[in-house]
Specification:
CATH topology of the largest domain: Creatine Amidinohydrolase
Order of helices and strands: HEHEEHEHEHEHHHEEEEHHEEEEEEE
Number of helices: 10
CATH architecture of the largest domain: Alpha-Beta Complex
Structural class: alpha+beta
């Protein structure tokens, strides 16, 4: 992803400020093909080969080690790290030796996902050093998004809206869950998504959503989808949760779904910088609980009332004392099990502002109904 000139300076300053507080002399950041967000955040490089590792000293220039020679042109074009080394062998030894030059205290991000041969090579290179696992440091650095990151997330939200529009367009009796998620994914990939994650449910009195199956849509079914496109890595993902009725909804379904709409709107109307992460959860529970469903506002009937993705984790639960800051992003979702109609879903991604929130989705928060033409 192309970036503004000040982005790496701003990001490195955040990470190094936390490194200084933790008394770290260097940070070793590892990513592999299935867990790309660590190096992607620190180096603006999305791993497509086997893996990559970045060394960020407290003082000095960072280095990026990549595993595939064919990926050097892309790394050189995309990454803000200038010193890029192709390391087809001994990658972790080279990175460890580099980190060891900067001092005695070395932090590591991604150690839990390293294959054994990488872990032992790094351990050997850092023998005699004080080594600590520092995932939480990078996670904290990523909590507040820059203007550039916010723009990426706005694009993600547009992709989610496009995916939902594709869902409505393709919805017909007989379509399978597999086919529907394929249509949604195609719309988002065509728009520029690098990856996506989806959950879906079709039926009546649904207990939850799951990964797609060959279950097919019937007249009178509810269709519930969780649409999560990503640009670059999962740290740049937004989510849209929607419920659609195939055919006219009953008055009971409309009434119960309105509870979710009211809970969402109430929470969003009160969210702003300075509130605690537990507050939106409490506010949503107040609305749904007042309607007689207080018991169902807690596990095992629901888990949280929203969350962020990848690095910069925020969970909107009743125990989270984190103070929300301007520039934080998350999905807010009053997804709810209601005995009379089953599990219902509604949610959209927002950006926290000093005086409120910015809604990133443009699709209306309502129970959608598909009325077939006769």
């Amino acid at each position: 992803m192309m970036y503004p000139e000040n982005e790496p300076l701003w990001r490195f300053a955040k990470i190094r400020n936390l490194m200084e507080k933790a008394q770290l002399d260097a940070l070793v950041i590892y990513s592999c093909q299935w867990k790309v967000e660590f190096v992607h955040y620190a180096a603006n490089f999305r791993v497509m080969g086997d893996d990559a590792v970045m060394v960020l000293p407290l003082n000095g220039e960072p280095s990026l080690y990549i595993s595939q020679p064919w990926d050097l042109p892309r790394a050189t074009e995309e990454s803000w790290v200038k010193n890029i080394v192709v390391a087809t062998e001994n990658m972790m030894k080279m990175a460890g030796d580099e980190a060891a030059k900067y001092g005695k205290s070395i932090g590591v991000v991604g150690d839990s996902i390293m294959p054994n041969y990488h872990y032992y090579a790094l351990e050997k290179s850092l023998a005699g050093k004080t080594v600590s696992s520092q995932y939480a440091l990078l996670d904290k650095a990523a909590l507040v998004k820059s203007e550039w990151e916010q723009d990426i997330l706005r694009k993600c939200a547009k992709l989610a809206d496009a995916g939902f529009a594709a869902e409505l367009e393709c919805m017909r009796v007989g379509i399978s869950e597999y086919e529907m998620v394929a249509e949604i994914e195609y719309a988002m990939r065509r728009g520029g998504a690098d990856d996506d994650f989806q959950m879906i449910g079709m039926g009546v009195n649904l207990p939850s959503m799951n990964l797609a199956t060959d279950n097919t849509l019937k007249m009178g079914d509810l269709v519930e989808t969780e649409i999560t496109p990503m640009i670059g890595s999962i740290s740049y993902a937004t989510q849209l949760c929607k419920t659609v009725k195939m055919g006219p909804a009953s008055n009971l379904e409309r009434e119960k779904y309105q509870l979710l709409c009211d809970a969402l709107e109430y929470a969003l109307s009160k969210m702003k910088a300075g509130v605690l992460a537990k507050d939106p959860c409490i506010w949503q529970n107040e609305v749904i609980g007042a309607a007689g469903y207080e018991k169902y506002c807690h596990p095992p009937y629901m888990r949280s009332r929203g969350h962020s993705f990848g690095l910069g984790a925020i969970d909107l639960n009743e125990d989270n004392e984190l103070v929300l800051e301007a520039g934080m992003t998350m999905v807010v979702h009053p997804n709810q099990a209601i005995p009379e109609v089953g599990y219902l879903v509604l949610g959209e991604s927002i950006l926290v502002r000093e005086d409120g929130i910015e809604r990133l989705s443009t699709s209306e928060a309502k129970l959608y109904e598909i009325i077939p033409r006769i």
